[in-house]
Design brief:
about 230 residues, elongated, alpha/beta, single chain, about 20% strand, five-stranded parallel β-sheet
Length: about 230
């Protein structure tokens, strides 16, 4: 069954270009030209991915993203922004967007990100089973069950988003090894040969630390190697 992409963008020429290219790739495109309509479609139609502009009539992209996440939806959200301010991009990520792309963007890069996020969202946790889990990473106080896609600290389940789980699992699968932000974008975000803005990694690490660390300001598990990247300290 084909995937559905919701485009929330008030510039019709951009919507038309996106619709054409998405349809050519086999996706079904839904369109909304303001934030209120976009939020309604997101909640009613449950698309596989949302392309969300920040500057929208009636309700801005930040509020739309916030309300989608508050409704418990985990739909991948790729923000489209003409803004260059770092605070805007970081705020979007903090509100639950999976990534952003700055206008003007190449259609090739946009489509690559759409495909990567949809691939990632297709990971479905296994149903709980009475059988012992075969895929477990035991790392001191942290345990990762790769069958159920769950992580635990001191035996208690961690309330992680899918991205946070994938980031923790990848780092914990390679304890002590430092990964650059670019390498994490390739391996966790699935962006092959990634070259570009890597602030999404820093935001994801910060949010993960808030849930995993005893003291996020002094992390013990997800550690920074200044100038190099991040590692998991087993």
């Amino acid at each position: 069954m084909g995937k559905t992409i919701l485009i929330v963008e008030d510039e019709k020429n951009i919507v038309d270009i996106l619709n054409y290219n998405l349809t050519k790739e086999g996706y079904t495109a839904l369109e909304a030209y303001d934030g209120e309509a976009g939020l309604q479609l997101a909640l009613e139609q449950d698309p596989d991915l949302i392309l969300l502009d920040l500057m929208l009539p009636k309700k801005n992209g930040f509020d739309v993203c916030r309300e989608i996440r508050q409704a418990g939806r985990t739909t991948p959200i790729l923000m489209l922004t003409a803004r260059e301010e770092e605070t805007d991009k970081v705020l979007g990520l903090e509100l639950g967007a999976d990534d952003y792309i700055t206008k003007p963007f190449s259609m090739r890069e946009l489509m690559a990100r759409v495909k990567a996020n949809i691939r990632r969202s297709n990971m479905v946790p296994a149903e709980p089973s009475s059988k012992p889990a075969s895929g477990r990473l035991e790392l001191g106080r942290i345990t990762i069950d790769t069958d159920l896609l769950m992580a635990y600290k001191d035996g208690a389940p961690l309330d992680l988003t899918q991205r946070e789980y994938e980031l923790l699992k990848f780092l914990a699968s390679n304890p002590g090894k430092v990964f650059s932000r670019e390498a994490l974008m390739e391996n966790v975000w699935n962006y092959e040969g990634y070259v570009g803005d890597v602030r999404a990694v820093d935001v994801a690490v910060r949010r993960l630390r808030e849930k995993v660390e005893d003291d996020p300001a002094s992390p013990q598990f997800v550690v920074t190697r200044r100038g190099l990247g991040y590692l998991f300290n087993a």
